[in-house]
Design brief:
- The chain has a single domain, classed as Gcn5-related N-acetyltransferase (GNAT) (Aminopeptidase, 3-Layer(aba) Sandwich).
- Strands 1, 2, 3, 4, 5, 6 and 7 form a 7-stranded mixed sheet that branches.
- A hairpin with a 3-residue loop joins strand 2 and strand 3.
- By secondary structure, it is α+β, with helices and mostly antiparallel strands.
- The chain is 26% helix and 39% strand.
- 16% of the residues are buried.
- InterPro entries: Acyl_CoA_acyltransferase, GNAT_dom, N-acetyltrans/Recomb-assoc.
Length: 116
Amino acid sequence: MQSMSVESIQRYIDTNYQYLVCEDQSKIMAVIAIRDNSHLFHLFVSDTYQGKGLAKRLWLLAANNSITQGNTGYFTVNSALNAQKIYLKLGFTPVSEVRIRKGIKDIPMEIYLEPD
């Protein structure tokens, strides 16, 4: 999980990544990152706040921001196996079977959102 180190995230923020953070009295509730205005790179919700719709609200906010910045509505994500269920709930569909890259299993998924 080197991509989650403070140094790695700082590099992401300094490049082509859009991060949104949801806080409650300085406690991080959820985080989302969109890379290159089209790839859902990180989506995490703290255990305490799971099941309250935060992932969906944060995803829609980030997706709408990307569409406002020129995205056509097409997004991708490389879902961890244990996260596939939430991405399916968000409307993503798998584009291939499970793959292994650098020892990590994921499922490539995509979604097309109609701009408002």
